[in-house]
Every structure is written in C-alpha cells, then in structure tokens.
Amino acid sequence: MSTNVPVIDAHPTISEPPKNYLNCSRGFMSWAGTLDHKRIGIMYLIGVSAAFLAGGVFALLVRLHLWEPHGMLFTNETYNQIFTLHGAFMVFIFVIPAIPGSLGNMVLPLMLGAKDVALPRLNLLSFYLWCGGTLLATLAIVLGGFDTGWTFYAPYSLYTDQAVVSIGLGIFLLGFSSIFTGLNFIVTTHKLRAPGLTWFRMPLFVWAIYATAILQVLATPVLGITVLLVAFERLYNIGIFDPRLGGDPVLFEHFFWFYSHPAVYIMVLPAFGIISELVTVHSRKPLFGYKLMAFSALAIAIISFLVWGHHMFTSGQSTFAMFAFSFLTFFVAIPTAIKEFSWVATIWKGSIALNSPMLYTLAFLIIFAIGGLTGVILGALNVDLHLHDTYFVVAHFHYVMMGSIALAFFAGLHHWWPKMFGIMYDETLAKIACALIFIGFNATFIPQFIMGSQGMPRRYATYVPEFEGYHHASTIGAVILGSGVALMVYYLLASLLIRKPAMQNQWGGVTLDWLTPTPPPLENFATPPSVTTEVYDYSTLDYESLRTPVR
Amino acid sequence: MFAQLIQDPAKINYVENPAKPPEIDAWGQLPKLASTFDHVDGLFYFTYIVCIFFFVVILGALLFSVVKYRRKTWDQPAASNVTHNTPLEVVWTIVPLIIVMIMFAWGFKGCMDMTVVPEAASRNTYKATAKQWNWTFTYPNHATPSFNEVWIEVNKPVQFLCESTDVLHAFFIPVMRVKRDIVPGRFQSVWFHPIEIGEFHLFCAEYCGDDHSRMYAKVHVVSAEEFATAPWDKWDDTTPALAAKSGESLYKNLCQTCHSVNGTPAVGPTWKGLFTKQGDTFVGRQREVIEGGAKKTITVDEAYITESVRKPDQKKVAESPYDKNNMTAFPDLDERRIKGLIEYMKSLAAAQ
Amino acid sequence: MSAHTHNDHGHAHADAGHDHGGGLQMGHHHVSSAAMFFNVLAILLVLTIVTVAVSRFDFGGANMLIAMGIASVKASLVIAIFMHMKWDTAINKIVFLSSFLFLSLLFIFTLADQATRRVDHEMHTTRTPVDKQWVHPSTLEKH
Amino acid sequence: MSHDGHHSIVIPAPGPEFVPHTVAHHFDSPVQEFQSMKLGFWLFLATEILLFGGLFAAYFYFHEAFPETFRVGGAQLDWRLGAVNTTVLLVSSWTMAMGVRCAQTSQKQKTLMFCALTLVGAVAFMVIKFFEYKAKNDHGLVVFSELFSGYNEATGQLAWFKDYDGVMANVPHGHMFFAIYLTMTAIHGLHVVIGAGLIIWIMKGTAKGRFHAGYYLPVDLVGLYWHLVDLIWIFLFPLLYLVP
Q1: ipTM, 2 decimals?
Q2: CB-CB under 8 Å, C117 with A318
Q3: Mean pLDDT by 10 residues, chain B (352 residues)
Q4: Do A224 and D55 touch (CB under 8 A)?
Q5: Looking at the domain covering B119-233, what would its CATH class be?
Q6: What is B240-351's CATH number?
Q7: A286 in a domain, yes or no?
C-alpha cells in the first residue's frame, strides 16, 4: 500500500461508533434542511425509488390490460392516462434525476475528494424543485389525469380536456431541478477536485456525470420553454404549435426532441459511468482504454445535440433534415460501441467477482448490447419508416432505459449500498432478484421486438387478435420482472433492519470514495485527501480494508 | 371529475372484423407483398445479421471471461493489467464506422425511393382523410368515398395524399412497409406498389387520443376486374330492411367508436330509443339541444339526423358530457347512406 | 479596448500580472475604468441610433442581416465590457459562449428543415393548398 | 451545522462601515468560492440564453413562414417607444456596471446610488412597457381582458385578437406576430421585474456594508443578470420593432 489518501481507521478507538453523516445529527429538520450532499443523495434515493415503484405499478397495469386484444381492464381513456403516467413518471421523475440525484450526489464529491458539492444550497433547492414537480404531476392525476403520452405532441396536447398545464408546469420545475443539479456538478468538478486529482485521474463516473451535466444545463432550458409554450397555448392560444392558428406541430417536435434526445443521454451517460466503475472494481483491473472512454463520454454528449431529428423520420420533416439527422445519428453508435467493447475488454483477464453488483453489471452489458444494436437498426432511414412508432421502438428504448439504465442504477445501488449505510444486504436474495429481473425483462421485451417488426403500433389500448400470443408472453415477463423488483425492495429494506455490518472497503475499490471511512463522516474525509497515483491502480489496493468490518 | 375508469364489459372495445393476419416467415417477418419490401427488408436483414454477429462476439467474450477468469480467492489480483491497446481501439472505432456508413447510405437510398413518388403512382392518387378516429378514402375519378375500408388495384402503383382535420395521425400499412405521420394543415404523401391480392391492416401509428387503437382501416388489394366494379360503391337499399342492413355495416365501420346502440354511455349519445315504433310508423323522441347557445327541444327526425351527420355542431345534445364533446363532421356522406343509417336506427326500435 | 486601466482599486488581493484565464488567478480583480464604461455606453447608444436609422431604408433580404449584425456588435460589447467577460477565466468564457453555439444548432436544424421542406414539396410531392377544396392532383398538374 | 475542528476563513472588512465575509465551510479559499459561484452563475446565464433561444427560434420560424404578417404586425408597434426603452435599458446597464465597479472599490454610497439609478431604469422600462401594452389593447391587437377566453372553433375567432382597425385583415394569421410579441416581451418583462427585486436585495446588503472590495460577489452576479436582461432586449428591439 503506497498511497497518500487518508487511512481507513483514522478515527480513534473508542467504544461508541464513530460519527458519520448518518448519526451526526438527528431529527426531521436535520434531514429536511440538510446541506450535506450525502443526505440529499439519500433523500433523492427515497424519492426516485418511490417514483420508480409508482411507474412500475403503472407499467404492470398497462401489461395486464393488454392481456386480451380488446383490453382487459380499463376504458381506452383510462388506459391512455395510465401509459402516459408510466412514461412521465419513469422519464421525468425517475430516470432523469435517478442516478445523478441519488448516486451522483452521494458519490461525486467523495470521488473528487471534496467536502461537499460546490453549491450546497442549490443542491437542496433542486431536490425541493424535484419534489414540487412531482407534486404537480401527482396533482395532475387528481385533476383528472393527462393522456397526451409523455411526449406531449401538439396539437393533441393542446386540444385534450385534461390537466396538461399542471403536468407541464411540473415538468418545468423538474427541468430546473435537473439544470441545477447539472450546474452544481460542473462547478464541483471544475473547482473542488482534490490536489493531484487531474482530469485524467478522475474516475469515469465523474467523467460521465460531468458529460451529463453539460447536457442537463444546455438542453433542459429548451424543454422548459417548450412546456411553457404548450401551457401558454392552452391558456391563451399563441398559435405557434396549433395548426388551426397557422402554427406548426412539427416545430413542437423539433423543440421537444432538441431536449429529449439529449435527455436520453442525460439518462444513459450516468449509467455508463456506473458500469465503468463497476467493471473495473469487480474485475480488479484498470479500465481498458480510459482516455478513449472519457472522450467518448464527451463525444456522446456533443453528438447527441445533433441527432434529435431521428425521432421525426416519419413526422414530415424535409428530406434534407432526414438525410442530415440519419447521417449524424450513426455517429453516436461509434462512441457507444467503443464503450461496450472497452467494458468487455476490461473484464477480459480480470479477477472477476461474481457478486450481486457484478451480476447486475453483466446483465447490463448483455441488455445494453441488444438495446444499442437495435438502435442501429432504427437509425437506418428506410427501416425506420417501417419500425417507427411500433413496439419495436418500444422494446428498443426499454432495453436502453429500463434494461440498461435501471439495471445500472440497481448495480450502482448494490455497489454503494455498503458505502452509504455501512451495512450489507442478503447476497443470495440479491442474486436471485437479479436473475428474476434479467429473465423477466427479456421475456417482456423480446416478444415486443417481434410484434413491432410485424407492425404492432405503440400506445394501443386494444389490438388485432393476431398479436395476442406475444402480448401474453410480454405480460408474463412483466410479472416476473415485477416480482424481481419487489424482492429487491424487500431485501434492501430488510438489510436496514438486520444491520449486518459491511466491510470498510466492501468490494476493493481504489478510488477516493472507498478510501474514506465507511459510512463517510460529515465532511467526507478526516484529513483533506491528495492523489498521487493514477486512476484504478489496483496495485495500491489495501487488502486489509476488505476484511475490516464497519464498526 | 373522474371519467369512467374501468371498461364496461358490455362494450367490447376493439376492432370488429379485422383483416386476416398475414403469414409470417421463418425470421418472424412479414411476407413480401409490395415492391417496397426490397427497400426495407434487404437493409433490415443486413443490419439484423451485423447486430447478431456483434452480439454473439460480445456475449461470447463476456461468458468466456466470466468462466475463465472468475475470482477464486478473495484476494486474487487480475490476470493482466493491460490498460489499453491502441491498434485494437483504432480497429473497433474504424470498423463500426465503416459498417454504419454503409447502413446510412443504403438506408438513405431506400428512403428516397420510398418517398419520391413516381409518375405512375401520382396518376393513381387517393386522398386519405384522418379524423379522430376514422378514415375517409376518396378515389381517383370516382365520386363516392369509402370509410375505414379501402380498395386498391393489384400491380398498380398507388399514392395516398393524407390529410388530417384535427390532430396528428399516421398512415401505416405494415405489410406495405409504409408509414407517414399526417400533420394537420398540410398534405403528406405515401406511395407503394402492391403485388399480391389480399386484405391487410391499416393502422394509425401516431397517438391521437382515446380511440387511437380503434382507428383501423382494412385495405383490400383486388384484381383489376374486381376493382372495375367499384366494390366500395355497393349500397343495397332496395327495401327498408336491406337499407337498414347496409346502414348497420356502415355503423360498425364508422359510428360505433362513439355511439352505442344498447344504451351504454360512450363519447357520443346512444342511438337506443331515438325512434319508437307506434303501429307502423316510427316516432322520433323529444330531445333537448343547444343551438347557437340557446336551449330548445326538438323532435328527432330525418332532417335533424342528416344535419347532425353533416354539421354536428349545429345542434348539440344538451346533456353532459355530450354538450362538450365534438363530433367529427361527415360532409362526404351521401343521402342514400344517411338514409341507410336512419333505417338502421329505426330497425333498432323495431327489434325491441 | 486595450486602453483599459486597473489602477484604481484598493484591493486586498491585488496582484501584479493580468495574464487572464489562468486557473489559479483570482480572475475577478479587474476593475475597469469609469471612462471606458462611459465610452462603451456612448458607442451602444450610437449603435442604437444607427440601427433605427438603417431600418428606415429597405434593403430587402439584407434587413435582417444588418439589424442582427448591429445587435451582435452591441451584444458583444455588453458581454465583453459590462459583463467583464474580456477579463474572465477561460472556462467562464467557454461556458457562456458555448450556449450560443448550442443555440445555433437549434436554429440551424430547425430553420434548415423549414427551408428545405419547400424544396421537398416542389421536388417530389404534390403541392396542394389546404385551405382549398381537395383537387385531384392530375388536374393540378395541367395548370 | 457544526464542523468540528474547522477553521472558517474570514475576509476582513476594509473599513468600519463594512462587515467581514466568512467563506463557506466547504471551500478552501476565497478564490475557490468566488470562482465556483461565478462559474455556476455563468452556467445559469447559459441556460437563460437557451430558454430565450427557443422563443427566438419560434420567431425566426414564423418570420420565415409569414413574412407579410410580421411586416404589417411590426408596423403596428411604435418604434419610438421601443427605442426609448432600449436607451433606458442600455443606460441602466451602464449604471449597473458602474455599481459593480463601486462595490469592487468599496465605495458604499456610490454603489447605492448607481443601484438606485438602475432601479429607476427598471421602473421606467416597465412603465413605458405598460403604455405600449395599453396601446395594443386599445387597438384590439392584444385584448388583455380577453386573454384567457380561448378560441372559437366555429367562427375561427381568437378572443384576445380583435383587430378593431382591421390592419391585419389582409395577412394570414395576423395574431401570430402579436402572440410572439406578447410572449417574448412578457417573459422579458418578468426578467426585468426579477432583476429589479434582486437589485433591491443588493441595495439592502450594500446598506448593511456586506459588500466591499474583499467580497462583492452578489453585486457582481446581479450585475451579470441585469446585463443579460439588457442583452436579450438588444435583440428583441430590432426583431420586433424594426426588421419586420
């Protein structure tokens, strides 16, 4: 062990457990008014998990309804509201804030060797903006629901008699929550790095969060103005999206996807970051092609601004725009492919621990391969003309969003759970849950690929009978998937009661987050850290810390 | 505040009598039924194979590593500490780049072929009008339109000019591999060249509201001889009973989405009890309507129904929620068909 | 604008050099001279008069370009001098100016789509005005 | 929150009428604090640019689609009022820059004076804006009392666009110009009001002596915000009043 970073057992040996960020102060206000990034991260974690479970329940309702061709449960209007709620909750309230808000907040300052994020008050504000946005979205359900789909395409969103203004303002707030989180992380990464932590010594999770933050800051305002304009349209008929008044619905799609395509990368880049961390720690091997990985994160961020039109290949944009957007779209495939290959190369000849975080990571690698490759199929212009707005697209983006991003989120959660709370969950149950989620997920969405290529359109409350068999398979898969998630929620919550102590360095990480005491003290480090080694240098790993339990 | 949430079992909420499903080939794909097949499916299979190849490579490498390099003791270091390999990284940047550029060029070529309408197709132009939630098809050189069903001639390129009167819809015939969003306020065109006779699905692929999934039309590809008989223009109203029967099939195609005949609440008012039979004559019911903002009571009669079909906003039923819901107008519906619908309404009374 | 002075600040952290953009520099030391601020204001007001005056003449398609050109000059002055961007750190410059870059992406692609859609219509679809009744395209082509 | 063993860094006040500034606990130096805040604020200004950018994109889009509407519509606006408002904002931008300069040099009274002048500019701008809106209201181009009354599908009439003089009768979608005009100027006006509020807050802090050569960050940031408001107007003025 030859590193200058703080030593694990820096605290004096006394009988009572050392002070950490969890037990340093008590009471409701010590949490609700906290400026500590770790506590804000925990609050985000609770919030986004609740949103995920709510979104998951909506998803199960959707799948159950589609058991029969004429729809089993709901009226069409209710069905439309439920799939809209599923989309809106999952996209805006869960996926976008999930990883940056919870794990990013928790881990990023630790990895940088900072005492906190640069703007702690803004951090708390963005959490409360998230709460406000979620509240408005929930209020919209009470006000009668909204059935526009999460994309709010004009002019339907302008004409429907439902609570679009409420959800629109909710999304405006959620957008600013996201902007402030990103802004905070950019400033933190630039200004609060520990001495010696150069740009190319930063863990890749930091790179990924940094690239994400660029997108959050630069793309989200356009979503903000778009939902505001939709609200104005409904309030006083500006007419710019309303074809009755000379407006152009395609302009709405441009505005919307200018944000929402980068948003896909706002969602997926942090997932890439988590996976990059996990493959190296659990293979105990430096990340393959570190610099190329860092640059490809930035490249994805930049290119993602140039490709939004591929959501509009059938929407009536010009041939020139289709040409340009299809051409640019294929360029995103390159850095993404580089990432996938580099992860596999990192695992190659590693020392691969098959613990639950690694199992989730392997599941991610397989599922993301499918999600990414089907994306290439959709990028081809004429193939997309057939597959657009079918279940093929639905399956593709679920492979990316649910299969990849949520799995990466679970992987990260399992990875940093012992760091956050100093306790371990039941590994056996975790492995079972991972298997259930993996099997259930594929069973849900592989039939959807087939259905989609045969022409089953998306957002259908009822369907022609020939697709019934595929829908059955899909619904059964969704139930398996749901039971896997339920099991995961169970053992994670149970671990909080059982309190089996984790190790100081549970998995053998060598980045700064694993070199501070577990759980971290209030200002993260007993002594200000400085970095002298290259990133992911496993020759510096202190094996004793892997066997020292948390006191 | 809340509309009815749970589906009424009495209202089976799906498409009546859809086209027969097309046969699926060994790849799980649709059969070759139109010229556009070559544009789409060649590239589709190419990308499919490329993707399967890469997937197998990735999966194989993963499984091999996991089996071979599994950590056996808790403090086992990695078998190798290689951090990068520049030639390898260059290769896996360049090779995918070349492959995707091939895909792009191929895709764009196919897309141009599918969007640039050839001369032959533009001489055989239909108009497809999409409304919430039905389709109206107007034929080249033929006055009578058809609703939710369309007949086209086999082996003759055809163009559809699509128009929407309300929100976004999309014209999607899976077996013909064509899809185009229909943006209100302008025409979008779609063309294809059907090469086999049969019945096929036409879906709305862009979300358009409550009954998006019921916005279905059946495409009949028929031989030139059959097409010459104008099968969409058959309307049997030789007797009131036959007219009612024709009216019923039109109802199922066009009106059932919003109007029930058994009293079930729906988007529009039910047709049950519009007429009652008294002896040999049918008497229309009394109904409160709003005309020009004022409430009045009218008797349902043929003139009122004709007006309601063609100008539905003229007299609105003064009863929630029908006073707020808007019905789409059908100015294209001719006298004979409206008469058929009325006969059908009357037959409902007779059946009771 | 090289004539700026920065001698009239009684600053605790006053340092000698002004090699702007250095990461460890305070970067906020610069106190511009009141005279320069006033000059900039004068230029801005003159440019306002110019842009109004120019707008009284019709240059056809160039109207927009001229107006936007003058506005850009004014904006650059405000950003560089009033907002002290000229003396700010490199990262702050990149951050703020990149917002214009990304905004231009929104403009370029959206407006290019709009502009080329017209070409599209002329090229290979039938141009049919929506306000009119639907006319069979074969009759349209004859005109 | 208490931080055991943490030494807070305090920047001393330059004189008795000022109060010292304590650097936030998680920063190692005043430089780090200043630069972090400033970078954060520049990022925020970048989001503001993109937020307005959406509106500008809509403007250019419809300017291209309905050039006649924009030409006739623009002629209905009074360019004199617009020019006066531009001057007001430019001058207030200058006073704000001077205010920041005085804070940098610990000149408390002058900072207060320049901030007050900026505030006067903000109020003047809004007053002129009010009269401008009133004129539009009187001509029925934007009927504010009817703003939220909707659109009559049957007649194709927009409640807030009456056009009493019929000036827009011969152009397609005459309301479009005024819809964009109203939306852009209203959102800009909202920023002016927020900016005025921030200036009042700054003046309070200045009066208490919180801002001086060692710590003038809030004054600097509010100044940046105010210049951004000016910046947007620099583009709005020719686009709405002159070019069409």
Answers
A1: 0.87
A2: yes
A3: 64 74 78 75 87 93 92 87 88 92 90 83 87 87 84 92 90 90 86 90 91 91 92 82 85 80 79 83 84 83 86 81 78 83 84 62
A4: no
A5: mainly beta
A6: 1.10.760.10
A7: yes
